[in-house]
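Protocol step 4 of 6: structure prediction from sequence.
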Amino acid sequence: MSMQVDRKVITGGHIITMDAEYGELPQGALLIENGRIAALAENAKAFSHLDAEVIDARGAIVLPGMIDSHRHTWMSLFRGISGDMSLPEFLANTFYGLGALVTAEDLSAATLVGALEAIDSGVTTILDCCDCVNSPDHAVAAIESLQQSGIRGVYSYGFQVYDFQPAGFSSHQERVNFAAELRERYFSDDQGLLRMGTLLSDFGTVPFTQTAAEIRMAQQLDILIASHTGALPNSRLLKGLQELDDHQLLQPGHLHIHCSGLTDPEWRLLAKTGAKVSIAPETEMQMGMGFPPIRACLDHGIAPAISTDIVCVGSGDLFSQMRLGLQTQRCLDNHQHHIRGEVVSELSLSVGDALRWATHGSAAALGMETSIGSLTPGKQADVIMLKHQRAMVPSSFPRASSVLQSHAADVDTVIINGQTRKRHGELVGQDMAAIRQRAAQTLARIQQAALGRAEITGAEAVAWLREAERRASVNLAEAYRR
């Protein structure tokens, strides 16, 4: 008895495969079978004999699904709240301030909203940085919401500690032990859309022995390790790379987020240990983290990955991040010519480079480059279609229009693992009215709980940061105690 094959054929669009062998197909066709890319062709005739659902992509640009290598879905309800905040103000008021109020039910609603917003903007895979694990129930709520959304991703179990009452864990060791329970319960075979990772305690915020325990736990469970690393120039906070390396705790594949405050010796350490780096241009440029370290990555042989980080600050779509990151780095590179008295005759980075950050680069950052990141036969069928409905003429350079002229509203179709999650500009398979109502009610509850909390700004934020730095110096010094 023959098995039924689920087939889709995308035809007539300009296909950008992000695969050097297949290149671009101006009126190409793409065959999907049982959740994988089966074949590519110059046109639809190659697949006309097949019994398949035909998706008309005429006038559209067809791309691999975007990959967001660092996204905090738990903060997705706080849209724009930190738009005028520095990093210390954000940490004191939003991250720790509101994080202490988030219940498991709140987290469930926020994670679902964050994942669906990602899909809506053409993101098919995320690293969900779930710092806010205030209790075991919080972790379960986040995972089950990610499953409900249909997104592909890595659930990154976080170790940050908030002033949540009543406390959901009695000790750091209990948090470490619970990671193994999650691994067994939800991620035992690594075959589903979701994998497990961990987000380390911010370096210096906990004793060095606890950071070491988190890393060894992740190594034992064979899960992705991610950390916010060197995000603040001129600060001891979020540092500690040398201490980690001295204890053989920096391993290949460790994903370091931001890195905009690292020194050249620290960059050499990342390169030596096989690190990956995720850059979030919008938050880095706003919050005083320095310039997005794209050039530092390239100079040290590290392929950049890119991310949205948080909608507390900026856009939740990777097109905006690619555009901002590319044009900022171009400007910085051009300026080097200007200060030498030269005229810029060619650009140092291309729009294709920016697309790689959101596809190949981010796939590699998550350890998934063999299964996603390009429209290559045999890979998972994560595909998006852009239709620039407001454009009055077709694009003369679709790669450039994808990076420089696209927004979430241009995403017409999203397919994840062969399943259509957005069609004709609308999410499918979700009760969006109910989800929006739940999200609004959840936000209102948190806002009510936050009434009366004093906002920390200016000198108070600096004092808060300095105290955190003092603790970091003590905690990192523990690495060398005998």
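Step 5 (inspection) to follow. The mean pLDDT is 96.
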